[in-house]
């Protein structure tokens, strides 16, 4: 089926329309490139055609490249994937260069046909790289449209000329936020930044008019004209030199060298800036191939794009259950979590009843939403009307009767089974027979809490992460008796508030906290053993974990750690393995060092609450040994503390889908995104190598590192997690 079609009007303007069948958004496929090329060739060869307008048949222009196609390009290249990729990318360059030169005489740069892009809405990735090769870009005045090059967010970079063209168009400094951070802009801001040329009410009509009057000189890109100089200076000019030195430092500071894409992008920009445009494209293609060949880019695309999207679209939703979208939600407890959940639900257009012990406490929760919207207004991200709309949806009250008619309730009261049982009963007395009751508990097993419910099949865990409005993961937990409709309801709700769900089975700490706690504990344990705390923290950051374990404990609070330790010890009795951790933790708590909120914890803080460095008192109580372990040893301890727990969660049936294990790890606690998640990382290093490392760690540090049976078995058979547990997602 055609993804592009074209028509030529009486004035000789050919309109090429991108309109991929059966999709709400255009994405570029390999077949799409071939079709576009054939239509461009035909229009350029036809003497009756004066020029071309390239537009979309949908409300948006394009969402980007079909990233599955990149995975396929690599697979299909056979024995020499790098060559296959490089040649594939060079073909795309040739097509875009053909559009850019539009049949003009190579010497005089005359006689080309004008080609303009008309963007009705969003234009991302390849959806902007193609327009960048056109002679002029018109966009609709559509405040909802997003324009930009977000490739870096999934571990690659704009590799269809976007990097080379943008830097030559804007200069390296101005292009940096778009290329290195994937910054997106609405059309007006994109025009001000120079990403596009014009904003018009009817971009296709404006583009057509422009095509009809364009002169030869209008078609020549600055970099194809004589005497071109890069805006902001090439690398070996005084100004350019500063840009490149600064960019190198910035990229290394931010990526710690673990993300191949940012570094490769900078190399492509720097080396490309020293040569002519066509050579620069070739250099860009080589670095792009280099990134695509790195297992990290494939793993990031798989987890952060392909599988994340699959989960958002309901990969885990029980089949055959009709739409369970929420109309009215009750939220019990208007504290930190309840207030955040009320805010995101109201933003999604859901009617909210926010209940707390007193009207004042409930009102405080509603005020959180008001504060949040005010901040948005200050930053130009929200309006007074939007604020009124969101607040208008939230009723704050102490009256449980107001829950009448709610089809979902999320409970976020104190982490105490008796308090939770009480509110469950009070709410169910008011709710209709179909309503689903969810708990946001972070530690209490769902099956136990469900005992307070008169209808356990409609009782489920919906576990949010803090801060709710920022954290994209929601962990849905099935209790032993939870039914399919409750799961579908939870998933439909998460979809309404545009977050990413994973669905797991009930067990102590579910999935995310089960993996995070051993990570924090391993860090604390090392301090107790005399490992330099700075080494612990830096080892974590240098392997791409966003926060060191000690900082993370400070952020979530030391007293929470103490509470969890006490509860775990009570549940486990003599088998409790973390006494050495508690020695450090309880000592800090005893000293009143409760973490960031007390402005005292593993770190010291100034009066404004800013971290000033590791607290020197720590070294007095737990002096670092003269003999410190190597960086890799510390990193292995920190990584395997989490990864082995993920494997055990799979082994125990808490996780039933490794895609959820990987996506959940990255979105839930920032597990080294470059790795694609714990299972992707194990596939990268191989189960055999993982077992070897863990046996060493177990011998030196204890049985918690002993490889689980599943990992041993996979090491012996040479199996990979994605081949065995998610064959369809293995690419
Ligand atoms: P919080 O102390 O900030 O808020 C709890 C609120 O519940 C308070 O406003 C309290 O007045 C209210 N409350 C207590 N008893 C009530 C009752 N009988 N009826 C109505 N309201 C009542 O706590 P929080 O941090 O928001 O945590 C709430 C829940 O979410 C807990 O189960 C916690 O484990 C879970 N959770 C917390 C986090 C986190 O990072 N804080 C993350 C995920 C889940």
UniProtKB/TrEMBL annotation:
Protein's pathway: Lipid metabolism; fatty acid beta-oxidation
SUPFAM superfamilies (alphabetical): 6-phosphogluconate dehydrogenase C-terminal domain-like (SSF48179), ClpP/crotonase (SSF52096), NAD(P)-binding Rossmann-fold domains (SSF51735)
CDD domains: crotonase-like (cd06558)
Pfam families documented for this protein: 3HCDH (PF00725), 3HCDH_N (PF02737), ECH_1 (PF00378)
Record protein name field: 3-hydroxyacyl-CoA dehydrogenase/enoyl-CoA hydratase/3-hydroxybutyryl-CoA epimerase
Reactions it catalyzes: a (3S)-3-hydroxyacyl-CoA + NAD(+) = a 3-oxoacyl-CoA + NADH + H(+)
Species the sequence originates in: Rhodovulum iodosum
Keywords attached to this entry: Fatty acid metabolism, Lipid degradation, Lipid metabolism, Lyase, Multifunctional enzyme, NAD, Oxidoreductase
InterPro entries: 3-OHacyl-CoA_DH_NAD-bd (IPR006176), 3HC_DH_C (IPR006108), 6-PGluconate_DH-like_C_sf (IPR008927), ClpP/crotonase-like_dom_sf (IPR029045), Enoyl-CoA_hydra/iso (IPR001753), FA_oxidation_alpha_subunit (IPR050136), NAD(P)-bd_dom_sf (IPR036291)
Family per record: In the central section; belongs to the 3-hydroxyacyl-CoA dehydrogenase family.
Residues annotated as domain 3-hydroxyacyl-CoA dehydrogenase NAD binding: 328-506
Domain 3-hydroxyacyl-CoA dehydrogenase C-terminal: 510-605, 636-718
